[in-house]
Structure formats: structure tokens, C-alpha cells
Task: structure prediction
Amino acid sequence: MVDIVKHLVRLGLSEYEAKAYIATVALGEGTVNEISKESGVPRSRAYDIMERLASKGLVEMGNTTPICYRANDPLTASDRLMDEVRRANEEIVKGLREIGQRAEKRNNPVWTLTGDWAIEHKIEELLDSAVEEVSFVFLSRSGPPRYAGLIARRSAEKDVTVVIAHRPEDYVSLMGSARVMRLRPISSALSEVEGTLCERGFVTGDGRYCIEMVMVVDQDTTLLLTNEVRSHRAIIIQGTVLNLFGHDAVRKLVEGAQEVTASRA
Result:
């Protein structure tokens, strides 16, 4: 029940509203007193809570004395709450975009993202924005399976090249129309960078950074994905000398890579 309450709160109900609705579902139908006892909502608050649930279309009121309440179907109730969340989200996005259009834009070429959701969303956004080509270099073993589905979907309409350091033949069938290649010894392409390639990725010589993946979009944007103390960080570089270095390094890795075919069962 605790989890259901938390989820209903995320959909916009107060904690008391969530508990009262769950109690009404459990009772089938009940008076304010019965719902109060079942839910733990104070009786002094229960009348107001049930009226709010009725106004939101989550319960029905019986024409009885005392008034009985009956819960509407949970799927119907959930859909109604989701509709309200979607409408609120649309208004939030619209309002924030209007505010953002008035904001002063600064030409900052380097940005950092943390958090898996934010990073995966940015990678998807960069893929969608690509006009010419996209190159991925996966240096860690965990990277290809994590992004294979996204790459497979976008490769149907984008020119995508994927260079994989660890068992690339295992992922050919998962990458859609993308060209999959085997990474050659990394030292030949990045001899100026000290470090070691292992299943975690490319660990720099001082051990401070572990590079899991490099992504280059249209020779204009480079995304560097690192794993630092069990959390991911993405560094996005656009239109600078640093980006030229990133693109040049990826180009060398792609040129030195070997195209592979799917492994046989």
C-alpha cells in the first residue's frame, strides 16, 4: 500500500487523498466514517478529502444518508490523473520555453551532464539532430548493450558507424543498419594519451578518468562519456579546437577499425 500511495502522490494527489481513495477501493463503498477508519485519515479531514476526490472524478457519491462513496475504476481514475499531469506538463513546457526565448544566450562551447537519464536523453537528442553522420566508439563492455536499441532505431534513417572494443561480433545483429567495426589497438590512434584499455573502458594513466564512449555528430559535436566514482558524466563539446581534437581522434579510430559480421551461434 505504501508504494501505491507514493505513486498516486506523484500523479498529483495529496497523501490523505491517496489513502482515502485506496480505502474506498478496498471497501467497495463506504461512508466517511468507514473510509476514515480504513485509511487512517482523520475524520475531521475525511469529509473535505472525499469531496475533493469526487470533484476529481475518482469517486462517486451515493444519494444516501449518510452519504456513501464508491471508487471509480482504478484504470479510469489513473487515466484521469495522467491526463491532468500531461496537461500540466504541456503548460510547464510552454511557459518555460517562452521564458527561455527571452533569456540571454551565452556562447559556452563545453557543457557537462550527470545522471543516466539526462545523458541518455542527450545522446538521443544528438542522434536525432544529426544531418550527415554519427560515429560511436565504445571502449567499455557495458556500452553497446545499453545503447544498441537506440542505435538500431535511428540507424534506419541516419548514417551511423559503431566501433566496439570488446566482442563487436556479438552486437552486429543488435545495431540495425549501423556499420559495426572492431577497434584496433588503441595506442596506435591515441598514442599521446596515457592509459589502459580494459572492460571498464579506457582508464587514464593517473586513474582519475575512465572513458566509456566517445560520440561525434556531424564533425561538429563531440560527447565524451566517462565513469567517475560509480556515476556517469557526459562532456559535450561544440565548435571548438577541443572538438576538432575529439573528432580527429575518433576519425583515426574509425579508419583503423575493421568491419565485422555477426558471430555464429
User: Anything to note?
Assistant: The chain has two domains: 2-78, 110-259.
